[in-house]
Design brief:
CATH superfamily of the largest domain: Histidine kinase-like ATPase, C-terminal domain
Structural class: alpha+beta
Low-confidence stretches: 338-412
Radius of gyration: 31 Å
Distance between the termini: 88 Å
Largest sheet: 8 strands, mixed
Shape: globular
CATH architecture of the largest domain: 2-Layer Sandwich
CATH class of the largest domain: Alpha Beta
Number of domains: 4
Length: 609
């Protein structure tokens, strides 16, 4: 207890603003973000950002928006003064990026602020300076320029927590990138120490998203354009093969506002869960549009978090749409789109080809060909063709290049399937195929691993999961919310194959687990499921663990290196890849095939020079 109790009293306005600044103005990048949002709310079509000393000495943001009338300039610097809302009803339906009227006042409490603004009807601009009294005439084009000088000069202790000028400049550039991604119709430019370092002209949403993600994703992406109820989703999903070591290319925008929302991030992570493993991170740019009345943006000082009225529906829709886009068959990859649609040739089936091609191919002993198929001729140049015998196998493999899907790829390349027709194997590891674009190299083990994995999943998903009852129930301590989830969501847990019951107000018992996960720790499984049910209202913990088991099974079942395949077997694998979800990557996130175009091949040999 203090020696003397102070009476309750109102804090001075300056101190209140400085407290608010601690939440809103964390670093120069926070200033950039707030001022950019003000410029966009003003209808700007071009915005320029200028930085000096990482924004610590000077931040200047100019726009060509509607401008501020001179009599409203003093109000712009007052706390909770805004033109964007006037009632609770408008707050609950807010469609602007800013609405609290706190940003400029908070910035002005820790730095010197100059605002120069001119409306379209005014003969000249006017300027207000927090270090000077009154409003003065000034030169300036229609629009507004806000200059923030000597940031944290009024609170020097805060300045000690900032990093180097280069680091702060990088954070400011990231803030600009995040805002600019959701507003492709606005041109943005960044100047650092008088030198232009970024220039994004107004354009399409896709061009802007690719600018934000970087050159690595110019070809390695999938497009999402879908609507689920009141939710519209547009975006680019980076392919797992172009993943990153850090989660620094993950952009999620809701109604034009960049957010860091755990619900949305969780949905995106689950969409990539079967395609990306280890410590790699996906890249994506997502733009969600939803009725403002169905989302609350007034839950965080920096407005980077939000709350949905129906979070489970949003999570489910986002995950499903992203999963479907990422798990498209290999035939839908942008680089494999044929010059004209391919139709499988109507030819008589080969003798003995009445079974599934893959079941027939990989069920046969190594090096043998199905009955009725003749061996192909050898290929020159040291490439091992399917006609060559496998050492120690006692047989030869091959296929008649004129029969069925093993038709000669040299014939009608323009009309070939997306992954083309097999030519040969290379060192018993890769399949070489020719399609309309050139040469395709396929990692046969990785490709077959994905095909087998997806087949195992389909078989298990055809019915409810089998439950393995435990001889001795596994018990664990639980908090009241977990107990309530078990009592109220018994049907959800049962659908997941998990049998849970309440032993006491603080103890749960696991009496059964999915049969596919019989060897897993029951208590850990239950905790993981309940944790996800609590956080997002749904759980994939059991599914993810089941898939890890299936991935291991598929890896062991997939065709191994040095297994010589016939042309029929190779082509059967290519056709399965074209129709298998997620066939572009194996179960560990590695690519399964690579396209080498004719132009690249010609360049290797200097053709056309």
């Amino acid at each position: 207890m203090p020696d003397t109790l102070r009476p309750i009293r109102a804090l001075p306005d300056l101190l209140v603003s400085q407290i608010a600044a601690g939440e809103v103005v964390e670093r120069p990048a926070s200033v950039v973000k707030e001022l950019l949002e003000n410029a966009l709310d003003a209808g700007a079509r071009r915005i320029e950002v200028r930085l000096e000393d990482g924004g610590m000495r000077r931040i200047a943001i100019s726009d060509d928006g509607c401008g501020i009338p001179p009599d409203e300039l003093p109000l712009a610097l007052q706390r909770h003064a805004t033109s964007k809302i006037a009632s609770l009803a408008e707050l609950e339906q807010v469609a602007t990026l800013g609405f609290r009227g706190e940003a400029l006042a908070s910035i002005a409490s820790v730095a010197r602020v100059q605002i120069t603004s001119r409306t379209a009807q005014a003969p000249h601009a006017h300027r207000i300076d927090t270090f000077e009294d009154g409003i003065a005439p000034a030169a300036g084009a229609p629009g507004t320029t806000v200059e923030v000088l000597e940031l944290y000069s009024a609170t020097p202790a805060r300045r000690k927590f900032l990093k180097s000028a280069a680091t702060e400049t990088a954070h400011c550039a990231d803030a600009l990138r995040r805002v600019a991604l959701a507003h492709p119709g606005v041109a943005f430019a960044l100047w650092v120490e008088g030198r232009q370092t970024l220039s994004w002209p107004a354009g399409t949403w896709m061009a802007r998203a690719l600018e934000g993600l970087g050159d690595d994703f110019r070809e390695a992406h999938r497009v999402v354009d879908a609507q689920a109820g009141p939710l519209q989703l547009l975006g680019l999903l980076g392919l797992p093969t172009a993943s990153r070591g850090r989660p620094d290319r993950q952009f999620v925008h809701v109604n034009g506002r960049f957010v860091r929302d755990r619900l949305l991030t969780h949905a995106a992570r689950q969409a990539y869960s079967e395609l990306l493993h280890g410590d790699r991170h996906p890249a994506y740019a997502l733009f969600l549009a939803i009725d403002p009345g169905l989302v609350d943006v007034n839950v965080h000082p920096a407005k980077t978090e939000l709350r949905f009225r129906d979070p489970q529906a949003v999570h489910r829709a986002l995950q499903q749409v992203m999963s479907e886009a990422l798990r498209a068959g290999a035939a839908e990859h942008p680089s494999l789109q044929p010059a004209r649609p391919w139709t499988a040739p109507m030819r008589p089936a080969a003798p003995g080809a009445t079974q599934s091609a893959l079941a027939l191919a990989f069920g046969a002993p190594p090096g043998t060909a199905p009955a009725g198929w003749r061996t192909a001729t050898g290929l020159p140049g040291g490439l091992a063709s399917a006609a060559e015998p496998v050492p120690g196998a006692g047989g030869a493999g091959g296929a008649d290049a004129a029969v069925g899907e093993a038709a000669s790829p040299a014939g009608d390349a323009a009309g070939s399937p997306p992954l083309g027709f097999a030519l040969a194997q290379l060192h018993g590891v890769y399949i070489l195929a020719q399609n309309a674009h050139g040469l395709v190299l396929i990692d046969m083990h990785a490709a077959h691993e994905r095909v087998v994995f997806e087949r195992l999943k389909r078989e298990l998903d055809q019915g409810p999961p089998a439950v393995q009852s435990l001889l001795i129930p596994a018990t664990f301590r639980a908090d009241p919310l977990e107990v309530r989830l078990v009592e109220e969501d018994a049907a959800t847990l049962a659908a997941l194959g998990l049998d849970l019951s309440v032993l006491s107000p603080g103890t749960l018992a696991v009496r059964g687990v999915p049969a596919a996960l019989a060897d897993a720790d029951p208590a850990s499984l239950a905790r993981s499921v309940l944790s996800e049910l609590r956080e997002v209202g749904s759980s994939r913990a059991l599914t993810e663990q089941r898939n890890e088991t299936l991935a291991t099974m598929a890896c062991h079942a997939a065709v191994r290196a040095n297994r010589r395949l016939t042309l029929q077997e190779m082509n059967a694998l290519l056709r399965e890849m074209e129709s298998t979800a997620g066939a572009d990557q194996c179960n560990h996130g590695r690519p399964t095939w690579v396209q080498v175009g004719m132009a690249e091949l010609d360049g290797w040999f200097l053709r056309g020079r």
